[in-house]
Amino acid sequence: MRSVDLFARALALAALLAGVAGCSSVMEPITSMMPSTGSAPATTTAAGSAPRTAGAAAAPAAAASAVVTSAPADVAVSPESQRAFDDAARALRAGQAADAERRFRSLAQAHPELPGPHANLGLIQRQAGKLPEAVVALETAVKLSPRQPVYWNQLGVTYRQAGEFAKARAAYEKALALDPGYSAAVLNLGILHDLYLNDGARALDLYGRYLLLQPSGDATVTKWVADLKNRKAAPITVSRKEKE
Where are the alpha helices (DSSP H) in the chain? Predict the structure, then answer.
């Protein structure tokens, strides 16, 4: 009976995320191709992949977070390159993943110093189930822009899907070291501790921290908290969904 209740809550969460994401074949690109100056994300949107059962194969991602950052004064991007980046982002928003991948790859080859094309390639490859390639692309992005918390969060999601839980924890913690109020990374770290690291006490702390960052509340996560407080030691059969 307990597993049925958990499964029902997972289905409800899937429906909620489908409404946020709009369409499972459309991703919202990371919209800056320049390195971060270290400031927090200017804008983020919550969405993500379909719910995942603990230990099961990852489902395709439904959407990714958008971030807008300002370019440092010493980074110059030609108008042609900016137009090419914008065209690739539009293709990704339109669900034309193959075209977007081709465009972002061309940009990454022409401008290997810019993290944005690598980050977007990572999102596309993760959605396609190409996790090793996604990890490489997002690791490149964080190396080029190590002070961008959104990149670290996306890398954490990818590590988690690849079963690299210690690396996922480190990536989420890096995102939060850069931006302690980054609610998506707080929630993702809580999910990781809850379902994959078997640390219910730490998960409760992180869920509570996440809820404090939600002025309008979050009924779903509030239910998770109640469930976790009442949970008996037993295998977990369904997962929470990360925020990307």
Answer: 2-21, 79-93, 97-110, 115-127, 131-144, 149-161, 165-178, 183-191, 200-212, 219-230
